[in-house]
Amino acid sequence: MYPGDAEFGFELLVCRWAETSWPPESARESPVLVSRQLGTQQRRWDTVVLECDPEGLAARRQFGGRELDSDLLHVVRNAPEEWAWYRDALPDPGYPWRYVRAAVHRAADRGVVEKRRRGNRIEIRRIAPYPDWLRRIVAVENKPDLDASAARALAGQLEHDVETALADEVWVATESTGSRVEPALLEDLPVDVGILTLSIDADGTDGLDDEPVASVEWYPSEVTPEGDGNDDEHRRRRLELAERAYGRGWRSYHETMRPDCRHFELRRFGRALLPRCAAKDRSQTAAECAGSCPEFEPEPPAWRSRGWPIEGGPGKGIKRLLRRRRERVREREIERE
User: Fold this and answer.
1) Where are the stretches annotated Disordered (predicted)?
2) Over 90: is that where the pLDDT of 308 sits?
3) Distance CA 160, CA 245 (A)
């Protein structure tokens, strides 16, 4: 059983498992980047796994660790090798050129293109070709307790995922029941969606050996349509999604929770660090852990005035720790041969 009784803890464990063990039941052949709670205006996925080209991912590093939004991508991907007026160099964006000009200035400020002024014209030049670093996008919906009602609620969303085909594969991750036939196989889910079950030891907080064990109960179909490589709009949307995942990484929960509360703790669960509330004596949800929580107590000022190892208070120490872990995972994947 995952810690606590909320899907939030299960989601964090799935993300951490994907960082260390993707793809399921086979050896890793390419670096992966994992993000959570990412998607489009119409659909948000619990977990997104990017399978990347090793050389392309290393080359992407030249453009910095922050994401390139759609406007910046338009500039960076089409910037010429030699100096040229930006309106000659870039394809017509379909919206006013003044927005492109603003994006050119932002790109130059970020150092992802070079810019100069020749008379009344702004010229640009690329710093390097934008690499083809993305191989595949895998979307995972996390439902630890996949009963009939949960399956009915998910079915429409999963059918949307299959039809839009922004992801190459779509999975549902659920908790293993240990049955000979997992109940998830009997639910009414789209046949193209894979089913992954994770066996999780609720007492697995003492060491690195207590890792979730994943089993594939149903393999997904490749849902990317034929000829997608020639669909510029579809490719652009996938790349924008991948850029958001690249910039945000495994979105850390400290951004939406209150680690500056004196009751906020981190507990090790295998290789994952999960939040825990000492006041509630359990793992809390992101929605619970807010300033409106009746148990919320800011850290005493004396805590924040101490030096090493907390340097500003345990809350700041937790943020630094989670940020370093996230950066270390990304660096490891970029440097993977």
Assistant:
1) 291-314
2) no
3) 20
